[in-house]
Write a structure and sequence with these properties.
By secondary structure, the chain is of the alpha/beta class. It contains 18 helices and 18 strands. Helix content is about 40%, strand content about 15%.
Length: about 550
């Protein structure tokens, strides 16, 4: 289902109002604590007013209206070079202010060229996800509030015909996701992009990680070669370097802020971990969320099906939560994203689709219920809290005893973690009620079954197999965390290029455990329909 343009715009405008209120509070807070010669969080001592004479008064007025006075480190180091027209490859921590760092020079470039709608698209921003594209578009709207250039947003899940019509009329600033952009470049004949002056690739490593490498290469082949290019990324990997060679001039300017830092995550973030056996994981999560239900919490899972199941379960037992995952329709993801952004408190369950680049205000806790694929993903996940000037937040990583070795990788990546203490006597023992509910409620039973299978499959596909080895899983304990007494059977895809059969779990009871599946008979994950409200008379709240 396509999202009506007016719905997206209404949500973006509502979020902009909330952001302005938040910025005003933070500005007062940071000014009251500011000591000359120091900076809080990611702020530098460089004022935006120092750009007077280099950028237009309209842009400076817009920045002031957005509540910003001092630049962040990445802004102070990149904006002067970008205003000179240089190609830049910039690496910076999540939450360090990359968006304004590339938007301000792009706005000034088209302002000086007096770009008009008839000139077509002069500046193009490519973002990896729809949510990040909407967020960037919202910031661009604020920045262009006093100027006449046109702007547009194109992304999957919205009305393509409406987008093509707007492109035909001339969109000076365009924010896009890779797939939909390539579609319009190839099929929208009235899309004028021959005058492109500036290309911005945001979260480049994420674009490549989620499989858009070929689309981006095709886009680069189509776009004009004479342009300024900016590539921003949280990390610079081998794949990113390959993209740099294709997208930028022979000698771009590299700007990185993370290499000599003592830690790879932002200041103001209290990070810790807890070691928890598999069968107690859900009990710990339930108790933690109950205690922090008045705060703003994000919980990360390894699969869409696990997010869906826990969303259904927690809401069913009267612990209200929201969810975002890749199998939702875009309209639902958009609504939930803005609902959580605008809320003062709430719990959001999500997959890594929400972990990159998104600016969600005032998140108190990041809980990693399922560990990330590598330290890089950990950094991006916790980057949702303690953002911007003087930001504060907390992060909790839940590990099985067999996964403690992951801490070594985090230490190498300059991520400091301390062990959090939990009183296990205070953990709510709702296991009997959970098992009874899952056994009697058909829809929850089926959802839990698919979530359990997805968890085991995701674990089997983990990159760090020396730490996250599927053969170390106690499937009976894992199944208990999903409400099962007997683990459902899971078919795992055999290792490619390996002649060894996947080992069967010793002591398997009938019809559970895991085994290799014939390629054509692998069970397909199913998203089941939502649980009907009021379908039975059973009490919906666990007894305590």
């Amino acid at each position: 289902m396509a999202i009506p343009d007016q719905v997206v715009m209404r949500k973006i405008k509502k979020r902009q109002k909330n952001r302005k209120k938040l910025r005003a509070v933070k500005e007062l807070d940071s000014e009251s604590r500011h000591v000359p010669g120091t900076s809080f969080g990611v702020l530098s001592d460089t004022q935006f007013s120092s750009l007077r004479g280099k950028v237009s008064d309209a842009t400076l007025k817009a920045i002031e209206g957005m509540g910003f006075k001092r630049m962040t480190e990445i802004q102070a180091k990149t904006i002067p070079h970008l205003l000179e027209g240089k190609d830049v490859v910039a690496a910076a921590k999540t939450g360090s202010g990359k968006t304004l760092a590339f938007l301000i020079p792009a706005v000034e470039l088209l302002y000086k060229l007096k770009f008009m709608p008839r000139n077509g698209t002069g500046a193009l921003v490519i973002a990896p996800t729809r949510e990040l594209a909407m967020q960037t578009f919202g910031v661009l709207q604020e920045l262009l509030s006093g100027q006449n250039q046109t702007l547009g947003l194109i992304m999957g899940g919205t009305n393509r015909q409406s987008e093509a019509s707007k492109l035909a009329k001339g969109v000076n600033f365009l924010v896009a996701t890779p797939g939909r952009l390539l579609d319009h470049l190839q099929n929208s004949s009235e899309f004028v992009y021959k005058n492109l002056q500036c290309l911005i690739i945001d979260e480049a490593d994420r674009i490549l990680d989620i499989g858009f490498e070929e689309e981006v290469k095709q886009i680069l082949r189509i776009l004009p070669k004479r342009r300024q290019t900016m590539l921003f990324s949280a990390t610079l990997t081998k794949k990113t370097e390959d993209l740099v060679k294709v997208a930028l001039k022979s000698e771009p300017l590299y700007i990185g802020l993370d290499e000599n830092k003592e830690q790879a995550t932002v200041e103001g973030l209290e990070q810790g971990y807890v070691v928890c056996p598999s069968d107690k994981r859900f009990l710990l999560l339930f108790t933690f969320l109950k205690k922090n239900r008045k705060k703003k919490v994000m919980v990360f899972f390894s699969s869409c099906l696990s997010v869906k199941y826990h969303h259904e379960l927690l809401n069913y037992i009267d612990l209200p939560v929201m969810s975002i995952h890749g199998k939702q329709k875009q309209a639902k993801r958009t609504t939930t994203f803005f609902q959580f952004c605008n809320a003062e408190s709430g719990i959001l369950l999500c997959t890594d689709v929400a972990a990159r680049g998104l600016d969600i205000p005032e998140v108190d806790w990041i809980v990693q219920y399922d560990p990330p694929d590598d330290p890089k993903e950990y950094i991006h996940r916790v980057g949702r809290t303690a953002r911007g000037e003087g930001g504060r937040g907390h992060a909790l990583l839940i590990l099985r005893p067999e996964e403690v070795g992951f801490l070594r990788y985090l230490k190498v990546a300059k991520v400091p973690l301390q062990e959090f203490e939990f009183s296990w006597a205070k953990i709510a023992n709702i296991q009997p009620q959970l098992e009874k509910l899952i056994s009697k409620n058909y829809y929850l039973h089926m959802s839990a079954k698919e979530a359990y299978k997805a968890y085991v499959r995701a674990y089997d596909s983990h990159h760090l197999k020396s730490i996250f080895d599927v053969n170390t899983l106690d499937l009976i304990q894992v199944a208990k965390s999903f409400g099962f007494l007997v683990p459902p059977n899971v078919d795992l895809i055999p290792d490619v290029g390996s002649n060894k059969a996947r080992p069967r779990k010793k002591g398997r009871a009938a019809n559970y455990g895991y085994e290799g599946a014939p390629p054509k008979k692998r069970e397909k994950s199913v998203i089941y329909k939502p649980i009907p409200v009021g379908t039975d008379n059973r009490k919906r709240q666990f007894s305590r």
